[in-house]
């Protein structure tokens, strides 16, 4: 039993000194925050983004016509 406690204590000390897990945790937190911001932005500005996307898709998809600025962006 004492061996088990000693072994667990050694592993715990090694885990506390290991900084690789800390960096990974920080990156995961930043990834989660960035994902939340993107979801919030799409939710808030979604209809406007959809209209802008359709405008650009129409502009780029016009075959045989010379490229021109979309309406209102000259």
Individual helix count: 2
**Helix/strand order:** HH
Going by helix content, strand content and strand pairing, the class is mainly alpha
Mean pLDDT: 77
Morphology call: rod-shaped
Tell me the helix content: over 70%
Largest sheet: none
Strand elements, count: 0
Euclidean distance between termini CA atoms? 79 Å
User: Could you tell me the strand content as a percent range?
Assistant: under 5%
CA gyration radius, whole angstroms: 27 Å
Low-confidence stretches: none
Chart the SSEs and their pairings.
Layout: H1 2-17, H2 20-61
Describe the structure.
- 78% of the residues lie in helices and 0% in strands.
- The protein is mainly α.
Jot down its keywords.
74 residues; mainly alpha; 2 helices; 0% strand
Please give a quick description of this structure.
This protein has 74 residues and is mainly α. It has two helices and no strands.
